[in-house]
Amino acid sequence: MIELDFRHTFERGTYRTMTGRSHAHSRILAQAGDLSPIHEVVEAAWESLHHLEASYPGFCTWYWTKVIPGVGRGERKILISRLDTRVAGVAITKRDCAEAKLCTLWVAPTARATGVGRELMQAAIGWLGNEAPLFTVPAERIDEFRPLLKRFKFEETDRLGSAYRPGVTEHVFNGRLQSASIS
Domain 2-181 class? Predict the structure, then answer.
């Protein structure tokens, strides 16, 4: 399991990924000056998750303007699970004074039913310090998540229409999703 949990400063500018693509977002400057581990985790997570933009409009902006700066402030963490050299799964968490939330949990199709989701969920819960963090699942994915939700005793507390996408119901677990929480 690789965790992105670093302290650094942000300056406005362009963040250039390992693949050379530019992202007009905050540039990351590690205190120690070594960007390799940071680049590797940020890029590996992005390469694994960027397809979510098709299902969640605004995902790209959220990742680069909320997640990456939040990691720098210590409010968010990116967890990556690997099988061999491939990314098998990614979790993104948020912990601040308002909430403990598992924002994203993704497992590669080839790694499903191998324990990767459970491993990421355990690591996320551990970092959040909360056995029942806020978590949402879209209606079309709820059946896939049921075994994991049951295993961790997540309790459905709400269902919201159009929370993240027009016309799509989100199942909310362990709390209430408020408009400020959609972050």
Answer: alpha beta
